[in-house]
Design a protein that fits this description.
The protein has 141 residues and is an all-alpha fold. The chain has a domain at 49-77 and 91-140. The chain starts with a helix and ends with a helix. It has helices at residues 5-8, 17-41, 52-76, 100-116, 119-140. Residues 14-141 form the 3-oxo-5-alpha-steroid 4-dehydrogenase C-terminal domain. InterPro entries: 3-oxo-5_a-steroid_4-DH_C, SRD5A/TECR. This is S5A1 dehydrogenase. It is a multi-pass membrane protein. GO terms for molecular function: 3-oxo-5-alpha-steroid 4-dehydrogenase activity.
Length: 141
Amino acid sequence: RALIFPFLIRQGKPTPFFTFLLALLFCIYNGYLQGRSLSNYATYPSGWLKDPCFIAGFIGWLIGMAINIHSDHILRNLRKPGETGYKIPRGGMFEYVSGANFFGEILEWFGFALACCTIESLAFALCTLFILGSRAKQHHQ
């Protein structure tokens, strides 16, 4: 998402390169930490993929990803070419929460944390909640 979304935006304020670079480095580092945690330290019983905890987490991750992708699509198509100004998004989860894209991403990471059951995945889910939760509150206001 950090790489794709900025290139899909048709208009609006450009993303500063330094901000893009920091986001990219953060995503690479987090991916490394999550991957290393899962490949080197996490141990799972042989039937883990059938465990209700894994299944619920995977479904949460999948639903969160679908919400996130659909919400980003709505946001990218808010304005017609040449239009400026603020518009309130409608449709999808935006009918229930004002920051549907943030909600979807938070749900993704908590689903991931539940499926993995590692302290590292839970830590990142909580960080995502606090960071995106505060951004969602700002957007709502």
